[in-house]
Design brief:
55 residues; alpha+beta; two-stranded antiparallel sheet; 2 strands; transferase; Pyrv_Knase_C_sf; kinase activity
């Protein structure tokens, strides 16, 4: 799938893909919480957001 122009949408798609892969190989179970650390925009020094999402 092509990269989204919207930063947060792109991050969410990548995160979803990673969680789906982890579920597929047995590292995660669907419904488990996942702690995500990310930046509000691309680049070094922008990591300032923590959120909890459900796999």
């Amino acid at each position: 799938e092509p990269k989204s122009q919207d930063w947060q949408e792109d991050v969410d798609k990548r995160l979803r893909w990673g969680m789906d892969q982890a579920i597929e190989v047995g590292l995660l179970k669907a419904g488990q919480p996942v702690v995500v650390i990310q930046g509000f925009r691309s680049g070094y020094g922008n990591t300032n957001t923590m959120r909890i999402v459900v796999a």
